[in-house]
Design a protein that fits this description.
Blueprint (H helix, E strand, L loop, with lengths): L3 E7 L6 H9 L6 E8 L5 H6 L6 E6 L4 H11 L4 E4 L5 E2 L3 H11 L3 E12 L5 E3 L10 H6 L10 E3 H7 L10 H12 L1 E14 L5 H18 L11 H19 L3 H17 L7 H16 L1 H28 L1
Parallel strand pairs: 1-2, 1-4, 2-3, 6-9
Antiparallel strand pairs: 4-8, 5-9, 6-7, 6-8
Amino acid sequence: MPTISVIIPTYNAERSILETIESVRKQTFSNFELIVIDDGSTDRTLELLSSVVDERIKVFPYENAGGPIARNRGISRTTGEFLTFLDHDDLWTPDKLELQLAALQQHPDAGVAYSWTYYLQENGESFHAGEPLFFEGNVYSQLLVKNFLDSGSNPLIRRSIIEEIGGFDPEFPYCADWEFYLRLAEHCKFIVVPKHQIFYRQSSGSMSSKIESMEDFNVQACEKLFESVPPELQYLKQQSLAHIYQELAHLCLVRISDAGGAKQASQKLQKAIRLYPRILLNKKTLTLAIKLLLIRVLSPKIASHLLQLSSKNRASRIQYSNSERVLQ
């Protein structure tokens, strides 16, 4: 019986699915099963999946039902003692499963192990490291403020905890990960693997209307989540909303390539600051402010080129460092 079950929900993933699966097959921990739930793809996803020869991989096609239901279908197909999820365009470092499993085995009182995140550009040519965080134990209040796990591709979870709390809630299509992690945090302790191990791919070129839809869904989700939050923690709501607008400001810069993206980013960031002025002390807020200043002073095109060059240089240094560790 496999120790770990990896669940990948896919939908029209022909551009990335083979690379994503390969990042699982290259794991230093090999006693896993890989459950791929195809959520009604209409491209070559299933054809590409059929070309992968590995007895640990099982593919289950379904009609389209959305991400939360696809993940729940994956959970129902698993047999491992520990479960983890990987979005079809994200990647892992080779030691992700090994180190997260070791963390949970060393801390039997913890139910979830998580790692730090790299933000990967859509073309895969550059990335930057997310902020290192050390939240452990009861992390419920920290998760209320922000989904610091960043994506659905991060945590390793004990099966027993999922059986206790249930799966993903389809009523939170954009924030199902966040809502799921909050329920986990209500029932178990978290442990951190202090290493960047998740490559979270950032889409580019999305229309501004998509950003506005994300704003609506995230704000509505925040409002709904806080309906059941204890009175003594309700004061965190403004801070939580501020972090939503901070992230929207970041997405405006990443996904909207013209000058309108910078304008929208500035508006979102100003709203974040009005909601929670102390967010100005946050490193990400300062970074966004510097980027917006560069765009205003240098023009969007030149500033974008400089920021991309800086990101590629960081990626090269990280890749070189990783190569040295492998050689040692």
